[in-house]
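ok here's ABC-type multidrug transport system ATPase subunit:
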Amino acid sequence: MLSIQNVVKTYGPKLRAVDGVSLELKPGVLGLIGHNGAGKTTLMQMIATLGKPSSGQILLDGQDIAKKPELMRRRLGYLPQDFGVYPHLTALEFLQYFAALKGVRDPARIRRLLELVNLHEHGKRLAASFSGGMRQRLGIAQALLNDPDVLIVDEPTAGLDPEERLRFRHLLSEIGFSKLVIVSTHIVSDIENMAQHLAIMRQGRLVAFETPEAILQQAQGQVWTADMELGAYEALRGQVQVLHAQRQGRLISVRMSHEHRPCDGAHVAEPSLEEALMSQRYALPQQHPLGLAA
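and the structure:
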């Protein structure tokens, strides 16, 4: 369906924001993950025809979208990271306005989309009065107005509370049953239960294209847990990759990544997807463990 072939995007003589990325994508949910500045947004903007590759091609059903952007735009739904609303329009008026821009003339579709995103009881409220989660759901509704085959969402759960995050992830997962959904995020929990594949980017390059199950399998036997005193922890943390550390009374409860048993008393643990992605193979950024003050 969507073929990304050795795509490069350069800015000036030195900066390669996207560096030779190739992907073959079909309907389902793709998690595009990596640290800030990894090239995720630049790649999505090129897929959305908001920018052109410096070299390489992006093909939709065999057609080059840089040469024929209207082919993608007719079939695209896009929710950017910073989604704004017009202050004097209700949710219903907002969708009616975008429907007119997209050539959608079916009022019933707007009502169905408001129901889909659970905003049908708030259609007459000013969109500017919505919470962050409600605005994101309104953003998804506008992205779905033209019944797109490709839906792109950039950092969709930033600023949402836990309940809204759960509802939003479920909605995207259902959309992915029949459409290609590309979700860009650096928050692994956003996509671990809904993505069929993960495309992992670092410094503009694609470092892996795997299923979540394959990534977890590769981390089996490499995540360990142990309880130790603070002095032992401070001596150990320079020798192993610490994934998480938390004070439990007088001891420190530590989860760590290592090819072999890192210390006496360590027990092998089941890795989470986030822990698997923090391994040296993928080298996603790691937060330093907190809560260790004496």
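+1. The chain has two domains: 2-210, 217-277.
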